Amino acid sequence: MSPLNFVVTPHNGSVRRLVMVWENGAEVFRDKVDVDNANARKRFFERLGQTLQRPGQELARAFEGMLLNLADEVDKAAKEQAARGNGNSTDPFEIARRELEKTPPEIVAEAERMANSPELLREVYQDICTLGVAGEAETALTVWLVGVSRLLASPLAAVIVGPTSTGKSHVLQKVGALFPPEATIKLTQASPQSWFYLPPGSLRHRFVTLGERPQGETPEVVDANRSWRELVSEGRLVKAVATRGPDGQMTTEVVIQEGPVAFCESTTKSKLLDEDASRMLILNSDDSEEQTRLVISKLFSDASNPQSENSETLIAKHWAFQRLIGSHPPQVVIPFAEQLAEKFPVDRPECRRIARHCVALIRASTLAHQFQRERDGEAIIADPADYYVAYRLLQRPAARLLGREVHTSFERLLEKLKAAVGDGEFSTKEAADIGGMTPQWTRQALRALAEQGAIEQVSPGGGPKSATWRIIGEHHGRGVLPEPEKVFASSPFLTFR
Fold first, then answer.
1. Measuring CA to CA, which residue among 449, 413, 450, 406 is closest to residue 430?
2. Is cis: bond before 260, omega within 30 of 0?
3. What's the CA gap between 155 and 176, in Å, rounded?
4. What does the pLDDT look like over 74-95, one tens digit per residue?
5. In this structure, what are the phi and psi dihedrals at residue 410, rounded to the nearest 5 degrees?
6. What is the pTM for the complete model shown?
7. Per its UniProt entry, which superkingdom is the organism in (predicted)?
8. How many CB atoms lie within 10 A of CB 346?
9. End-to-end CA distance of the chain, in Å?
10. Cα–Cα dist 256/253, whole Å
11. By the 8 A CB rule, do 54 and 43 touch?
């Protein structure tokens, strides 16, 4: 029998815990199981046996004792690390309180003014524009609220999707600048395995912004991103490492890196892995001519004006604001949750993920507006206006998650093709010329439009010959979230611009 390695996550409040099984350096099985329950362990080994085509009873006899011991070791290590972290200076709430005390009173006063402003989101967006972002209101504010969600027990994760040179990383960089150092981890490249070896507590309630990760379906890419998915889904990283002790005997050392984290990255891949897409808000960068005009106008406008010191004061205000709202672990109650659940779509399993995104976004908006919300003891009470924020920002990402909507640049390409060729055929190269898009982005666009039933491939390409296509239908993006007017008697009016 080949040796098997088991990786067990600590208890996180749930009876069941994640157990992963590795063989010859590759993961072969994973399941959630109540390790303390004998019947649950029996079923676990039966399922493992079916996967490995080995007798489940034989596997249980060989590995059940080791599984129990490893679970105990993991729980013990988690408790010890939690005890060490209680007074640790890496605690983000403690740091926020300490740094706020050192902040000049006039900066704190300005942050408090913003926190109490009915136009909070408008001011945040205007400040983002002051730092150099043009347009991209919904994307920028969504990324900002993802950062705010770092304070929650279950934060948000997002990815900005778009072709090269559309300012994806620029938006991420400028929004990230509004968060103080103790709240953020900014990475250009990172191996997920390296996250295990950051100082303990480094990821807890942080806003992690990351340069483009490798995206693909090769085993190497999938394995490389496993740690990232565990951190987003489970809120912690756990790794069992085999080490040789002083006596020469092999022992198991458990490495635990506590989260949770809010996470945002960018990519040029319009088609994400299902495992990634289901965990993230999929945001679009704007590559339209109108947006390009805005960007160019902003560049020349900034070049014609002297450099201002206002940006430093602006950033200081936002750092103080984040410390104001992040000085204590928050509790958020959504009193209209049952009303919303009654109206929420249930026709696809992905709706469960959308519901989680919606709850997290409502809570993030409530946290940002906490000085304008009622309280019940320590709990902050969400307002219908917070659902409207979620509805406004989540509508299109939710539709993309269900496959009901494509990137906005793909929609524009379809309209240009209709105007240029009508019912006639066109090649991939001609589509790129008509749409003014790169060949790579054009191929992604045509595949997405074909999946939506808007076009079909007439002949495949080969060698120097491009594939040919024709238009066969329309693409109509469909709403997913229930309209505020159908959830509440009246709907608050909200604009960002």
1. 413
2. yes
3. 16
4. 776 566 545 444 445 678 899 9
5. -70, -40
6. 0.69
7. Bacteria
8. 9
9. 65
10. 10
11. no
